[in-house]
Amino acid sequence: ICWYFTDTWEQFRINGKIEMIDSFNADPLKLH
Length: 32
Description:
32 residues, Pyridoxamine 5'-phosphate oxidase Alr4036 family FMN-binding domain-containing protein, 0% strand, 1 helix, FMN binding
């Protein structure tokens, strides 16, 4: 259970960073 929770948290944390980066990169494109 511990390793599953750790993997899930890692995946959630990585996905969160990717979504933040995508949103940050997409905003300037929308302005154009």
